[in-house]
Amino acid sequence: MKLQNPVTSSNFFRRVYALVRQVPRGRVVTYGQIARALGAPRAARTVGWAMRDCPANVPWQRVVNARGEISLRPTSGYHEQRARLKEEGVRFNRAGRIDLKKYGWKKF
DNA sequence: CGAATGACCAAGC
DNA sequence: GGCTTGGCCATTC
Known about the structure:
Helices cover about 40% and strands about 5% of the residues. It is mainly alpha-helical. The chain has a single domain (about 10-105), classed as Arc Repressor Mutant, subunit A, CATH 1.10.10.10. Strands 1-2 form a two-stranded parallel sheet. Helix 2 packs across helix 3. The longest helix has 12 residues, at about 75-85. The structure holds a DNA duplex.
């Protein structure tokens, strides 16, 4: 386990959170996009690592993988994320995926 | 400092 | 469309 740190250690993590906080309701972004926006095109995995301990004020539910799917395995977190997105108006197709062309954050 | 970790990704079958 | 493989990378231990 890991000690919980309010403002989380590194600058990189904070940038991740700062960016995610800017994602508007009803929109989603991918880990890869976040990584690129931070100047580390191949650090998508690290972004996911950061999300593991994300602060409460971060809309983590708006972060999905490149396929527009919730990356969490079918845990309680998965269901919560899906429910939150649905509440924001984001639709899932049969395969449980989101149409990024449609719900992707326009900034990207 | 070296090895492990993981809410990723693109390419190949 | 689904499964596997190799690579990437900041953070942790």
